[in-house]
Fold these 3 entries.
Entry 1:
Amino acid sequence: MVIELPKIVLKDKAIEEMPNIIKDLGVNSIFCVFGKTTYDLVGNRILDVLKDYKLEKVYVDACDELTINKVTKKGQELKTNLIIGIGGGKNIDLAKAVSYQLNIPCISVPTIPSHDGIASNRSVVSKEESKYPVVGKLPIAIIADLEILSKAPARFFAAGCGDVIAKKTAVLDWKLARDERGEEYDDFFANLAYLTADLIIKNANVYEKNYKSSVELLMNCLITCGLLMAISKSSRPCSGSEHMFCHTIDKLNPKNKALHGEKVALGTYIMSYLHGINYEEIRDVLISYKLPITHEEINIPPEVLVEALFQTHEIRSDKRYTILRDGIKKEEARRILKELKVI
């Protein structure tokens, strides 16, 4: 199977390039997926540059089964042949999921630099109080406007950095699975993922000197990681025990307000300790990016974090092999979190 890589436009005023990308697709009906905040931010601008096309817009506040089915049905009725996801995670995830259902192309237009889903072929779907991944359509283009992205709240930038730093422990988990379980492993994909983490780690002490350049670096790393998952046909290069820890927190405490990248960054700090690498360096980098490393900072109760570390090895149905292997006892989980001053 040949994977056609997306066209990537990463620069100031990237949104103005959208007509040039769309003109060769032979589309006539476009569905734009917004959130209310996103529409207030860039809606009029996007509708203006696409004024020569038949446009429909939908506002979403969740990427759940009900909304996916609703938007898919509307797309069928309108005979939509292109869907554009504009904004953050849920909008882009929904666009990818619906485009997969309709078998039409999608375009990703991120407005916050918070996670690598902007360029992957996976969507995270909510069901009641849980979340699970599904296959989505790989975007045919990623339109990343640096003017918009660099004005996003700094918390989203930090979360994006956290999601990239997480590749450090994700790759170590993958190597462990290779060494102890004989799992298939690819040096090229692993090394590239590891490189993105190192680039963000090295930028931690200087990112504020030229913030827009740092946002550009982060976006390049996030896009690279998203494409790695698509090309390798696995989330292994980018997601390990630290992501499983995040998903377990969401299962145990679904109403938590922490960002995905904040939770996986905390997981990376913990898992780097378990892997025996320089966890203090990871901690210092997270502090430099103003990412939360204590239960007070991330606003999640200590007992939830203890229980999450205790249960993480069971969160995936495929029993992904990681540094947690068959799990750790609850008292050991508590000891680790206290030693790391997380609780």
Entry 2:
Amino acid sequence: MEKLKADQLVWEGADCAVVVAHPDDETLWAGGTILLHPEAKWTVVTLCRKSDNDRARRFFRALEKLGAAGSMGDLSDGPEQAPMDIREVQDTIAQLLPPRSFELVITHGLWGEYTRHVRHEETCKAVIALRTSERLFAKRMWQFAYEDGGGQYLPRFVKDADRIIRLPEDIWAKKYHIVTDIYGFTPDSFEARTTPRVEAFWCFSRDKKCNLELSKPEEKKDESISSI
């Protein structure tokens, strides 16, 4: 079941891209959406870990399961999370994405999906800047809509997001398989326990632009969705 406030999207033959910071982000936050729409042409790019041979191998195996093409960058991903020059992040995205117009580009939220990973936030800001400057042509942009109450609980979908997709059990099972069997995260890992059964997005069309000056929404406690 899908709650839809955004404009309708015709998936058949649509060029769609997913731009993420790390291999596995594409599956965690949007893998169900990709699997639900094999009729679209999916391209996935990740900005980090190209030189990590094991993670790179797993990323391309994941793309096979998702029915997507893709490529990897090798931006710094150290534990210190030192901020990067946003222009370098933009240039990396521009180099990795095929030079064509996209019906839809999906990326991280402005404040990430949990507390806190700087690369997620930088990736979102870079995609917005590329689209605003028309270095990236995308009719629509969706941002992952998840929050963790400032680290109080595992990431959950934002209940007032523009697009909310409750995944069928078989689609969620395929997504969970990629997270655990392809990427190798154990059942008790953050990634496996987080794997959302509901995917949610903030949606921006040509006429609805993303404002980088928006303030972060107030986090809400809601124990009713603790199992998601």
Entry 3:
Amino acid sequence: MIIISSTNRSRTSTQHRAINKDYYVTPIKPIESFLKEFEKSEDVFLHNPIILDPCAGGDNKHEMSYPKAIKDTYNDCNRLYTMDIREDSLANLKIDYLTYNTENIKPNVIITNPPFNLAIDIIEKALNDVADNGFVIMLLRLNFFGGKLRKPFFEKQMPKYCYVHSKRISFTDTGGTDSIEYCHMVWQKEYYPEFTQLKII
């Protein structure tokens, strides 16, 4: 991991409580399945890219999911930045990504499982922060495509790919699932097609 420094502008205590409540541990296997499928269409992970996970998570019982999956899949991945707003996270930086200036890095890939209530804000910032032709990858509910409030966003910035997980993802240590389908949505900077390519994995 690479440790980077910044000036931390904190959120209010109410916002912190909301984010902590929205923290779920993402299982490793679905991430690895996605990475292998994504590799068939785009080879960015094969070239030791600069990667940023802005909501890296992790705690005293769980590793950071995306860094773990990426390092297990691509052994030579050594340019990976991690940050998280939670103080108990394992991320290098305990920082609010939405207030962080990324001028000192230019990731080729920004990938994470964002808090649902902040997903649009995080995606829009990531599309601004990522390098030219870089990729923004977010684990989201499939029904994220719906909703009147998100329609204007998708009209401007439709993802290039959507990888739908056919097996429901469990975010609990007991393996329980809910009735929600999840997918990895993939945007490529400045490439916003009229239609998204869909793959079921």
